[in-house]
Amino acid sequence: MSILAGKLWLLCFSTMMLAPMFYNIVKTEGRTFGIHSIAIISVFWTMFFRLMVVAASYFNFNTLIMFVLLLLWQLCILFATVAVFYLILNELKEKFMRYANTNDWRYLFPAVFEAVILIFFNCSGIIFPDADEELISQGASFSLYFVVNFYVIVGAWLCYKSYLYNLDFDIKYLARKHFLYFMVLCVALFLQQVVFKEVEVGFSLAVFLFFNYMTRSRTLISQDPLSGVNNRVTFNKFINNVFVSREHADAYIIFIDIDKFKQINDTYGHLEGDEAISLVGKTLKSIAGEYNAFVARIGGDEFVLVVQNCDKEKVLKIIDSISYELDERLIFSDKKYDFTVSCGYVYVEPQDHNIKDLISKADKRMYQEKSRKREEVNAVN
Fold first, then answer.
1. How many CB atoms lie within 10 A of CB 298?
2. What residues have CB less than 8 Å from 276, skipping those under 6 apart?
3. Given 171, 205, 235, 330, which residue has the most CB atoms within 10 angstroms?
4. Class at the top of the CATH hierarchy for domain 2-221
């Protein structure tokens, strides 16, 4: 009876932890069945069916009901694990990865294969009453927890890779924390399985979802919601931490501004203007990931890119890459208009700490570039 009470308490505790998360996520995303909410719902049902399996064993339910509940619980574990994995995968794609991964479906193969195995094992117990129930249970348990650990390890590797290839310290914080927690979860699940012969996957995933929600909330505070890059507050914090308060390596600050942004707003409306800012944000985030740079939107249609340990030739290459990738994105976005960006850059020497003046110089050079473009257009006309 104490085991049943313990499972009931874990379910109630997890519900109290997950319910506010579910409400806030649905309210924020404006949809009930986003990947976040699906992960939360699946974890709840995992813990619920675990409680039902323990209750069925305690109250001696008939064999058929027991097998059905056991199968539902195992499938819920599998579904919840995959949902949490895709939750993290989507966050990594959104924040770190340069190109969209169109082969996400391949991660489903282990789960589909495992679901078939679980159905086979449980149906064998029903079809062949004389079969060794303990052997069937051990086989299903071993295969299930092997697949669970597979998803945990792959998730840890993706987080670690994202941590290595990104300079943004808030994003690195999220990736590093996710990696460490994934590794702890992997070890915990393994020890539970080996030592206690029972794994509380549902509660472990519930704790992870809570951790992910709190960590993600921290990064959202530092992120500009329209462009998806860092906001001005985070930029100031980055500048103070990297350049002002301590010695630093040489770097370049690139100031970026959208050309004829007011014309886009006046002609096509502010929604299209927001789309233009979002498109530039995605482009700069992509470039920042490729060149290990820091990017932020500091107001209106103005962005800043900070690149450390590079030379002038590389900076010019980055500026060319920005224009080239923006053109590519415009082609595939099917916009009614074209737009470009102007860039101005300034060199930050190791002894420089007055970054405000340097940003002002980069800003002036950017406006000089805008003037040059206007003169070229007027000369052609």
1. 20
2. 258, 261, 264, 301, 339
3. 205
4. mainly alpha
Note the pLDDT tens digit of each residue in 269-281: 888 888 888 888 8
**H-helix segments, the chain:** 2-29, 35-58, 63-95, 108-127, 133-164, 169-191, 201-221, 232-239, 261-268, 270-291, 312-333, 355-380
Residue carrying structure tokens 């233009």: 276
- Residue 95, both tokens: 């924040």
pLDDT at residue 155 greater than cutoff 70? yes
Q: What is the pLDDT of residues 223-267, one digit of tens each?
A: 777 777 888 878 887 887 777 666 667 888 898 988 888 888 888
| Contact of 362 with 345, CB cutoff 8 Å | yes
Place of tokens 């505790």: 13
Lookup: tokens for 217: 């909330």
| Residue range(s) occupied by CATH 1.20.1070 in the chain | 2-221
CATH superfamily of 232-380: Reverse transcriptase/Diguanylate cyclase domain (3.30.70.270)
Between 361 and 32, residue with greater pLDDT: 361
CATH 3.30.70.270 in the chain, residues?
232-380
The predicted-structure confidence for 34-77, as pLDDT tens digits, reads as follows 888 889 899 999 889 888 888 887 787 777 788 888 888 888 98
136 and 128 Cβ atoms separated by less than 8 Å = no
| Distance of alpha carbon 82 from alpha carbon 94, whole angstroms | 18
d(CA 373, CA 30): 42
